[in-house]
Amino acid sequence: MRTSSFAASSALLAGWFAIGPASAGLTDVGAGSAVNCQTSDVQLTWTKQISPSLSPVINFTPGISALACIGFYEGNDQPQPTTNLGYYGDGFANGGQSPANSIYFGTGMFIGTGELVLQDLDKDGKIDDPGWVTVGKYDSDQNKFVANTVNGQAIIGDDASAANGGLQSFFSCTGCANGAKSGSWSLTPDAGIPERFNAAAGEDSKNFFDAFSLVLKGGNYYTAYLFTASQIEGALQGLLGNEFKLSLSDVYNFGGTFTMPTITTTEMKEKQTCTGKGKDKTCTTTWVEKTTSKQYGLSHITALAHDPNDVNKAPAPGTLALLGFGLLGMGFARRLDDRRIAVIDRRKENRFIRRLKKSHEGGRERCALLNLVDILLDVGIGRLFRIRIHLRELRLQTSVLLGGSPESFGGLVAAGHRFHRWTKFRERFSVAGAE
Questions:
Q1: Are 18 and 217 in contact (CB under 8 A)?
Q2: Domain end: 278, 312, 346, which one?
């Protein structure tokens, strides 16, 4: 059981960066205070790429704690957004204000943490838009996820759309009945949601979100937890190597666990002490601290996604394909010497292509490495092909070297070993040819 501490209400409501005048009874907490929560309350335990290609599930053991958390805050995670495009003032995470709440995020929730910065999403000439899109809310009373619209369009799948044979639900939760103290969550966007979101938002980018947040509400308190793309990329590099790059143009599913925080509050209580009886009775009043700790059960979970910063919106190639091409490129670029590049005639180019295709189509993937070396010997030992040939046959070569499965993580690892052996073999013959 994890415990959050509450030193004093004044510390909880201390504002960081005030933007504009606050409404009466509201306190601006800027990007939020992180001193009253534990990032380990919410963990990421698995991920899976689903677009542009499907990858195996990758498990994180132990789980990855949230990059940051803010709260706990008294009240509700309100107001809800209207256009839901990440504009300033639209929704509680983007600095929206509600009389039902005692606080609001003047600069936007988590802004300044990781890669999250203010943007000009509404094109009004002001860099003040936090970029949070409220995906929807899992209601523990109804035990279902209800999605929000984006610019008035129902582009996010929820339990209702899935039941009607439409879009799959973006979020699901297991063991999350009303009052639950812990459970498992899953973010499961479908492959088509980036295009639908961009169409609704009027954007031409094909990128998805670069961060997501889960807000846990229990009792009269809520706490928000943040995960970012760069944080997850770092974790995947620890498993797959530093060459791995998480592309924002790809769609991933995520899942993990949560534990409701234990809320510890301290308040001053009046205490009266009396001595004597009757006319001799005297009483004194003192103030004492009273500390209360309670782990409130789950009321609801709000899921939010962050629209990537404009500077990150250049579409990138598929992550796994990029890895395969990177391995191949390193092998061909090693010890490149322009003085030894020979001009190969069309006959040898065509012979190279035919033999490589024959090796692949014949199902001899296990022999592809030796076949490729033999082809290199045939067209000229120690001399690399023209760049034009590299680009022309790059996809075919990658497919052969990866055993016909360039999207497979296992194939990728195996390709690395094959490339190591092939490079050593080529170097031996290169030295012999030079002599």
A1: no
A2: 312
